[in-house]
Amino acid sequence: MSRPIAKTKRTVILSLALFFLLFSLSCQAAQFVTIAKDGVNIRKGPTTKEEIVMELFEGWPLRVVNKKNDWYEVVDYEKDRGWVYAPLVRKNDTVIVNVKKTGNMRSGPGKNSPVIAEVERGVVLTRITVKDGWVKVKHSQGSVGWIYKTLLWPQK
């Protein structure tokens, strides 16, 4: 085999390997978790000896950005960051209202459905189902309604 062909073949193989690596990384869905009980400490590092940077209540959704032993490095909807002990979280089943002031909760999945409540920024809701970009949610006081997904975090 001549040198130009070998070099071209090697370049093609390396390019394909890089493409598949980048493609597989982009296909991995972000992992989200939910705080499992009230009063969970979020720390500066992955140990109980680290400084507490936040205390969160049950239901607070978080995005996992790293894992070290039994600890998750997490980020919330305001981009606050810290570490949480993995047994203190559960599979994500909540969303948080992420608007400037308030968002409309509607009786059905559509902008023509009547508004049944205004929900303030930072309110945590339980996600029930998703339909056509609308998320059916339940408030802790029992109200059930629909909110457009771009008003919520995470938007999955």
From TrEMBL:
Q: Does the keyword Nucleotide-binding apply?
A: no
Highest taxon in the source lineage: Bacteria
**SMART domains per the UniProt record, alphabetical:** SH3b (SM00287)
Q: Which InterPro entries match?
A: Cell_Wall_Dynamics_Protein, DUF1058, SH3-like_bac-type
Q: Which residues form the SH3b domain?
A: 92-156
- Origin species: Desulfotalea psychrophila (strain LSv54 / DSM 12343)
| Signal peptide feature range | 1-29
Name it: SH3b domain-containing protein
Q: Which residues form a coiled coil?
A: none
